[in-house]
Amino acid sequence: MTDTAEFPREPDKPEQPSGWLTDGELAVVRQQIPILYVDAVPVRVDDSGDVVAVGLLLRVTPTGTMTRALVSGRVNYHERVRDALVRHIEKDLGPVALPQIPPAPQPFTVAEYFPTPGITSYHDARQHAVSLAYVVPVAGDCRPRQDAIELAWLTPEQACEDDVQLEMENGHGVLLRQAMAYVGRLP
Amino acid sequence: MTDTAEFPREPDKPEQPSGWLTDGELAVVRQQIPILYVDAVPVRVDDSGDVVAVGLLLRVTPTGTMTRALVSGRVNYHERVRDALVRHIEKDLGPVALPQIPPAPQPFTVAEYFPTPGITSYHDARQHAVSLAYVVPVAGDCRPRQDAIELAWLTPEQACEDDVQLEMENGHGVLLRQAMAYVGRLP
Amino acid sequence: MTDTAEFPREPDKPEQPSGWLTDGELAVVRQQIPILYVDAVPVRVDDSGDVVAVGLLLRVTPTGTMTRALVSGRVNYHERVRDALVRHIEKDLGPVALPQIPPAPQPFTVAEYFPTPGITSYHDARQHAVSLAYVVPVAGDCRPRQDAIELAWLTPEQACEDDVQLEMENGHGVLLRQAMAYVGRLP
Amino acid sequence: MTDTAEFPREPDKPEQPSGWLTDGELAVVRQQIPILYVDAVPVRVDDSGDVVAVGLLLRVTPTGTMTRALVSGRVNYHERVRDALVRHIEKDLGPVALPQIPPAPQPFTVAEYFPTPGITSYHDARQHAVSLAYVVPVAGDCRPRQDAIELAWLTPEQACEDDVQLEMENGHGVLLRQAMAYVGRLP
Hints:
The structure is a homotetramer.
Chain A: H1 23-29, E1 35-45, E2 51-60, E3 66-69, E4 71-74, H2 81-93, E5 109-114, E6 122-123, E7 129-137, E8 150-154, H3 156-159, H4 162-166, H5 172-182
Parallel strand pairs in A: 1-7, 5-6
Antiparallel strand pairs in A: 1-2, 1-4, 2-3, 2-8, 5-7
């Protein structure tokens, strides 16, 4: 999962906004309580709402491995879940992705990332994160930012294939297939 | 609930499309099995998906009473639920309403309209209808068609007020409040 | 899908209950409108609600093929969806299965079985059926009745394996995996 | 919301279990990130899963006011959401309540309690809490523990009446009505 708190601060934002933690503070809190996240599965839909493509972020890890990921990030103090969704989608897909944030707060699932592997399908070595997962149609132009080198649009069938699933870490592959099950497009 | 089968056929459609019933056939079937419907709650949302207004159709009954209604109609033979949603929204809100049909088929509730009042919150004297209910953001220009004289946009709070609720028949008032509960906007 | 209307009538029920169709009437209606169904995925859960096993009905088709199926059946005229769930679970799993019918009518998905294969993941040669699908924990003793020869309890992982999936017809394999995705147990 | 961390530690548990914070640590964290909670609406259901009663905890505040509340509490570090539900229900309703924890992690809504009133329907002066809300049927004997003086079972209609709603704080009244909307029992 991407975590905004770990990216270099932008030059024009010397002061931390309220509710942000320093890296040191965050490291301490992460050993104490579950951290609230949102996961978004960006999709293209046709006029009747049927999912025709899924957007996956392509990243290269420090060790040179190529990985695919969903949009993911922390909910800040005093931030609404829907505003966290908008913020992370804009951060990862750019400012003109035109996401259609679901009107209801009910997520399609809750993904529980444990630091210990095997308790659930999800894993995060850094922390115990609990993520509210949403399928988010995006209607606009997507330009990956930050550390992603590309946003690839795959059909639901392609996204569920073994080779793509193997490139997804921490249980994002399972979460993606849960999203496809939810929208009725599990192969 | 509005039922397309009962409206005068358009002049340029002399042949019934496959899966349509004559009024007589429909009357017989309605006494035999539950009829599948869709209900749509049209909403305006802001950039973060929060509902800011609900669209209600204003109609005048044959006896002169003013009523408010949701978008509602039958699912045809060999028609997907999402296509029925598009068709009924277009029928009631016009061709440029630009509805954002939810990507998932999971409805926020299932409304069971019984011919006998009191079994559920919903009632339909003509039939036993079972309706899949969805909240549908509409981004475009809405022009009520058919028998509706106006589409009124109300805030969630206004839509749940007693005087508006009293103008909604057959349990549509309850269904509207269920929709507001689902989107987190129940007053 | 199993359809009660097609099974031999029990000797002590010479008269059809209200809302039942003769086989001939049903055959006509099936070509005219979508037929409302319920699908139930019977599960065993532990004390924290986690699914530990899925129940699949084992049947032998007239041509001698062994198939596995979910609990499935039609909603009758003037019958609530939750009562149809109870009736079909009792029909297939016996009178002491002690099903825990979900308190909310919201299904985990809506399965649209078309007579034409390929439109959705589900198929029913006889009709256009639209099924509300629920995961139903059963706490009691299950004794398959009617035409099923056995009820087999499989782990979520086993139930999603290829050889089991191949024994499920009409898209029940996909529906089962959607159910496992919904309960967070998709392998 | 009830928070276990603030109750006197039991004599036989001198050491804090892993993942627990001291009151001082919790007070600091509460000003830094959203705290993950679960809310449970305890219900009695009939054989077909229909809700017949809602359980509300009766408490007297330090200032002598009588309040009604849902079951609510924090999710601990390295604790699954479903285990937190079991723990808080047992804490508030006793060890033989026999709760039927939902098999799916999808909550019926996400309640966002802000320290600033008016941002959402929910409010918590102490913190920014984000709560996953579930309807939980309880089949056993409920004996309120801790600080509650009684568990009162009300019909859905009674629970939504103004006088009961007024006794519920921090938005629990709205959350209760959302739960009733979800189970199809909103008056």
